Amino acid sequence: MDTLDGSDFAPEHVVDITDVIEHKSAVLGEHASQREWLNTAYGMDYQESMREHGRARGDLVGVRYGEAFRSINTFPQVGGPDLLPNVRAVA
Q1: Is the C or the N end of the chain the one with fewer CB within 10 Å?
Q2: Is the residue at 5 inside a domain?
Q3: What is the C-alpha separation between 7 and 51, in angstroms, rounded?
């Protein structure tokens, strides 16, 4: 899965999360202590950061919001991108 700020991460696949972005934002909003701490410590609105990051990843595959993934080569292989819903390969 992607890193918080997208650094040092080369996504291979992006899942279109446009239909669930409001739910994802609401769930993140339930973490009140984390939200307050990040706002106080860093002036960060992590719900808005999540949306900005989602837009950037969505742009990679032509959707409004995306969540990025890459394969981790382990043994034995347990599955691939076909396990993810609404997945699109990054060009």
Answers
A1: C
A2: no
A3: 16
**Axis crossing angle, helix 46-59 with helix 21-29, rounded to the nearest 10:** 150
CB 32 within 8 A of CB 38: no
How does strand 87-89 pair with strand 13-16?
Answer: antiparallel
Total number of domains in the chain: 1
Domain range enclosing 48: 13-89
Q: What is the pLDDT of residues 19-55, one digit of tens each?
A: 999 999 999 999 989 889 989 999 989 899 999 999 9
Closest CA to 68 of 14, 24, 16: 14
Does residue 3 form part of some domain? no
